[in-house]
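Convert to structure. Protein one:
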Amino acid sequence: MTLTSTARRLRRPMFRERRRETWYAIAFVAPAAIGFVVFYLFPAIRGVWLSFTDYDLFSSGEFVGGANYAQIVDDKVFWNALLVTAEYVVVNIGLQTAVALLMAVLMQRLAKSLVIRGILLVPYMVSGVVVALLWQWLLDYQIGIVNNALDFVGLPRQSFFGDPALAILTVAFINVWKSMGYTALLLFAGLQAIPKDVYEAAAIDGASEAKAFWRVSLPLLRPVLALVLIVSLIGSFQIFDTIAVTTKGGPVNATRVIYYYIYDLAFNRYDFGYASAIALVLFAILLGVTLIQLRLTRANKSDLA
């Protein structure tokens, strides 16, 4: 028996084992891959095609070129929806990040209990529809607990969902309440990753608590803050459930955000071609803003290095 034949015999079981492991890996990956292709990739490609047609569910749709995109330029409802969305994004991200950062600092300094962290996650784990129904009842003009409390202390009742000046702010508040616990835990994890030696060095240099936070914690928290801002930005542009339950885009388009406008065009007016075009414009906006955020926040760099 030659050395070559012996080596071949030894390699055969190894090849069989590798082949078996490969099939196991394919079996585990296949369901997720099939789901991605069926529910994400194919609809995305079809959406791109539909954006160049006048498909309306009742006909096969004809190719119209860039007519749908040209229509966007003169669509006042689209520009109003984009403006309302921008207002919501600014309020939601600004308030949510500020409150979550405060909660994260308080958890780090005062309370590190697992029970408290679990309680903070409860609103985030609840369905968005349930949260919207809860706050719709709490803020109801006639029977809502909040308005009854205002009336009790002598303040006028407020139409939180019926007043154009308050509606989008109310929707933003609801989603801040729902998501701030999750955001706070992300920031808390980032604070925990900062070495204690850095704080000790700052204390030796005479830095106060406030100064250590602004000069040490915030700069070292930048990668996590960048992640939080990007995730919050994308989620804010996709706000739908709260508006669909509470205001349905009203009053007077005051809460008709871009996501709800796309839904209204596609599933109420059956104008899938135009809705797909707006969806692609929204994708381009999100991609551009995200890249700008990554560049400005330097998310891939840390001051700890």
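Protein two, convert as well:
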Amino acid sequence: MSAPPVGIVGGGNFGWGLAHAVERAGREALLWSRRPQRTGTEHIDLVSGPAALAACELIFFAVPSPYVASIARELGAHLDGGHFLVHISRGVVGDDLHGLTQVLRSETPCRRVGALAGPLVAEALITGGPSGGVVASRFPEVRAAVREAIGGPLLRLYSTDDVTGAEFASTAVGLFATAIGFAQGHGLGPAAQAMLATRAMAEAARIGVVLGGKHETFMGLAGFGDLLAAVAGDERPELAIGRAIAENQPFEAIGSIGGTYFEGLESAGRIAAYTRRVKLHSPVITLCAGAFAREIPASEAVAALMSREVGEE
């Protein structure tokens, strides 16, 4: 009996990247998008509506976080508890920073959900270049299904049951990668970028633990490994967006960079508000939120970052 097709929601670069990864793994992909950017292939079938994805066991969500709830609700009418849902979005929702797996569970009848995190970039997924990531789920069968669907010799997928940690780490890295691009746009060199990355991830880990995640998740591939790839220059869209913010480009132009939805501005503001409410010290994220929203002049944000009091390593 042949394996069922793999469903993909979203026709942006990541959606197509996942579809090509499925194709390379020898599986059929069904891709649903209201605005597909390309035409299908022999093993990638563009479907006209969500009902077609009911034939899949595993369905990937490759859409920005603000749209996950409404799309999940529409798709959920055709699903049942036998389906697995896995998202690849870098965002949190609500004042309490809920991960999108909670949204998938609340808007569909599906219980077995997960998230893809780590240094996955759309270009490597599309071309098949060497890459790696983390699949986070409390259900071993979901982790196994993802590895079988897209894993291979050049796409190494590690596993964790720390869904909360992986989701928040992925969100944090998205906004920190933007901050790295912002720093590059202001001429900060490797040492300053390393300092920013280290302090930022330590800050994210503190917040993640309060949310219920594990500290070690932030020090692994889903956290520091992902941010290291950004610092090394994997040219993910967030880096270009950060440089564009540093150049004071209008938000309308920034929104179209790399064909991606910029989640960093919303995430930074939401996380900064949460840390103020629960009285967590988060100077890097607070600066990111102010700089991204242009509430703090760029030069002032850079100066504030470099003037933080130093202490023990």
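The radius of gyration is 19 Å. Residues 177 and 239 are 6 Å apart (CA to CA).
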